[in-house]
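#help-structures

NK: newbie question. if I give both the sequence and a SMILES, will the prediction place the ligand too? trying with fe (ii) ion
OV: yes, paste both and it writes out the complex. here, I ran yours:
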Amino acid sequence: MDEQLSLDYEKNLALYLDTGRETYLYQISGFGKELMKQGTGPESIVEMHLNAIKKINKDKKVYPKKAIDESFTFLMEGIMSYGTAYREYLNSMTDGYLAEIKDLNIRLSQRLTEMTVLHETVKMTGSSLDLDEVLSLIFKSAVETLKAEDGSLMLFNPEEKVLTIKKAHGLNEDVIRKTRIEIGEGIAGTVALSGKPMVICGKADNPLVKIKGRNKYEGVNSICAPLKTRKGTIGVINLNRKKDSEPFAEDDLNLLSTMAHEAASAIENASLYRNLHESYLSTIRALVSALGIKDPYTKGHSDAVAKHAVAIARRLGLSPKEIEGIEVAAVLHDIGKIGIREAILNKPGRLDEEELRKVKKHPELSLKILNGINFPWKVKPLIYAHHERYDGKGYPAGLKGEEIPLGARIIAVADLYDAMTSDRAYRKALSKEVVVEELKRVAGTQLDPEIVKVFMEVLASGEAGENRGN
Ligand SMILES: [Fe+2]
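OV: that's the protein plus ligand as structure tokens.
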């Protein structure tokens, strides 16, 4: 490899990691393309990238994973945009699996290990990843334990720079919706600013009262504790009793502070998890984008299927963990097509029997590609079964009705809808109206009729968004 090019690359990558500026990302992509043009194999390019990261990170702070991932994604895009070279490279692979697919698989496994560890940690602390549920539980128990008449859990909204109510007890809907407290304003704002809990019980000489204009709070019987994370205060829990009830005491303050600490940890865990999930999904997308080179008609298809499948799963009221699994399975559902020849995938006419047999192998090929990766959700059975039919006439196993995993039945509906509403090698996109009629026609034979019904509601409500239009 050209040494100057390699040094220039390193310099450019360092500039991106330092500044986060997008222009450097495009340069990275350009390098990938240029190296491919010079005949460097994708494997060596990926190696150069990893070496450059190691070198840049040496004796320095470790750069955020997201930035490193982003640089990798752009490099991959550059590699893949050099279509001809890449195509030749693809065709020269006898086993059908690309070196960088293996590399991506390793990275995918690493991400999954991190996610699994986080899952386990969260499980061990007796918490749940469903943030909303955790906050409800903590807030409810604070209200009950401290015998509050009313109160709220408020979170800081960084866009509006105010505290807004996320959970409430004994407050009317209007108050919940409209309350906006600035930092430093009132009891909640003061606690958010100072990061220290506070009791206000209406006695002017109470030593715990440390608030500006405290006369205003004569007759108030309140307690308030901050939600603190490593990054600072992100909200407060506020509880009130009637003024003639027993005043809150310092013990109550300790108890509420502990509960606020738990709520803050749950929020921190959830955001950590969300970031990890996003970085994980971007790795998966890089894996899937390799498929886009072989079969341009599937470009954007997996994301659209995922979007529709998630909308159906949400409407069915599935748990966040089930929804995550369905999203990942939907993004990856056709990954096995990487192992099928382009001439078959892009054939404009009808496939002959032998070609069809090969295409039908893709669910099994998907399992082979993902072999060895331990997903924290049920993903592989959904990918494997996405071509099963409700009447049992599908493939690969000929499963029937509820024998087919629910997630696979959902993906089947989303898959058919997106496939029909977009252009294919053998036909143009069909109109939404025609496709809706077709889905209704095959409900009960090819597709689960209940899920088709739910998807119709999703489409009517606009939750699934519009067709990709390609
Ligand atoms: Fe498929």
